Amino acid sequence: RKEVEQDPGPFNVPEGATVAFNCTYSNSASQSFFWYRQDCRKEPKLLMSVYSSGNEDGRFTAQLNRASQYISLLIRDSKLSDSATYLCVVTSNQAGTALIFGKGTTLSVSS
Amino acid sequence: GAVVSQHPSWVICKSGTSVKIECRSLDFQATTMFWYRQFPKQSLMLMATSNEGSKATYEQGVEKDKFLINHASLTLSTLTVTSAHPEDSSFYICSAYGDFQFFGPGTRLTVL
User: Cβ separation of A45 and B100 shorter than 8 Å?
Assistant: First the structure.
């Protein structure tokens, strides 16, 4: 089983749609959880951290379920600029510094 | 925000040559930097953890004699791909740990 698994995608949605990405992780000792965004041929950029209490940043909502080892990202009112690959990331070491990346889910938003 | 730079941004070299990639944290000191590699349509894979003033820690399956890492100062880590071969062609990304991990823009290596 891979350490971090994500929906394979791609997700093709119209502008204004709501889209949800799921992610599961295998290491129950994982400390920290993130969603990163990666544009084509660019480095990943932190989108948001994920907390058990759930957190929201504008149109983006992230949820963590430690018991199920499951992470989600919800994007509301999709914009063309949201088109990218979304990476689910967990930390693998006690210090919480070594990141394990999922393969990513590609989102394409069209007008 | 914290900025991490990488140089060069892309390089094309002949098989058998060595290539050095630099990673710099520009506005903060990073005792720990990380090197990742990403093949097309694949996830970023951690290659090694670079610790200032000590030897790097390599992930399983990564040859330490082939991928030489030097972290000589708190703002600079270098990755040298020795005797590069076409299968080493990839996108190499470094990151430096501040409050979060900040990624460099990546170096695209093509070995002919």
Answer: no
Distance from CA of A65 to the nearest CA of B (A): 22
Rounded Cα distance, A71 and A90, in Å:
10
Q: How far is CA A67 from CA A29, A56, A92, in A?
A: 11, 21, 17
CA distance B104 to chain A (A): 7
DSSP A82: G
pLDDT digits 0-9 by tens, B53-63: 888 999 999 99
Question: For the residues of A53-65, what is the DSSP string, one character each?
Answer: T-EEETTEEEEEE
The residue of B101, B102, B107, B109 whose CB has the most chain A CBs within 10 angstroms, and thus the best one to mutate to test that interface, is B101
Q: Give me the residue label for tokens 């394990």.
A: A100
Q: Strands B90-97, B107-111: parallel, antiparallel or unpaired by DSSP?
A: antiparallel
Measured CB to CB, residues of chain A less than 8 Å from chain B are 4, 41-46, 49, 87, 97-104
Give the tens place of pLDDT for each residue, A5-41: 998 789 999 999 999 999 999 988 888 899 999 998 8
Measure the N-to-C terminal CA separation of chain A; round to a whole number of Å.
Answer: 37
Q: What 3-state class would DSSP assign to B88? A: helix
Question: How far apart are the C-alpha atoms of A13 and A8, rounded to whole Å?
Answer: 15
Residues counted in chain B:
112
